[in-house]
Write a structure and sequence with these properties.
Largest sheet: none
Helix content: over 70%
Radius of gyration: 19 Å
Order of helices and strands: HHHHHHH
Shape: elongated
Number of strands: 0
């Protein structure tokens, strides 16, 4: 089980990092909402290794049998590896590759709010945003946010995969 988790976790981590880097490089001139869609799609695609990891364990290492709980555990551990890799990559991206990202995204978001809200609503939302600005400029917070996002999506994919792939021994 350990080898399957490590192998498929590394496959997932490499895939999420390559897709994220490709998305950042190729999509740098795209609108932030399009970049966000590309980012979430990259996460889901890379986390499909959860399904293949559970299937590999069931069919190759465990004589065609896997319980729901064990399948879920395998999937969550695979997604944990991908989440760690993506969290670290995000910190590297924001700190070294594109240190202006947080400022640029913040300015974009403020402008978007200004264009879509009334003046009174904008002031209220802007004050909320200002209160959160320092929190989201924190390196650990950026790591945790990306880590948690991948882990939550990974948990959902693990849950679905465990439901689909569970197989009890034939009595």
């Amino acid at each position: 089980m350990k080898n399957t988790i490590i192998r498929y976790g590394i496959y997932s981590a490499i895939t999420i990092c390559l897709l994220a880097l490709a998305g950042w490089y190729l999509g740098k001139n795209l609108d932030y909402s399009i970049q966000e869609i590309i980012g979430y799609t990259s996460m889901v695609v890379s986390l499909l290794f959860i399904f293949f990891g559970i299937k590999h364990f069931r069919d190759t290492e465990n004589n065609g049998v896997v319980s729901f709980g064990k399948a879920l555990l395998i999937g969550v551990l695979i997604s944990l590896i991908a989440a760690l890799a993506f969290g670290i990559l995000d910190v590297i991206y924001i700190k070294y590759i594109n240190p202006d990202f947080v400022t640029e995204y913040y300015s974009h978001y403020v402008e978007e709010m200004r264009n879509s809200l009334s003046e009174a609503e904008f002031k209220i939302e802007f004050e909320k945003l200002e209160a959160q600005k320092e929190l989201f400029s924190n390196t650990f917070m950026n790591f945790f946010l990306m880590f948690a996002t991948v882990l939550i999506i990974g948990f959902i994919i693990s849950l679905i995969s465990a439901l689909v792939l569970q197989r009890k021994p034939i009595a």
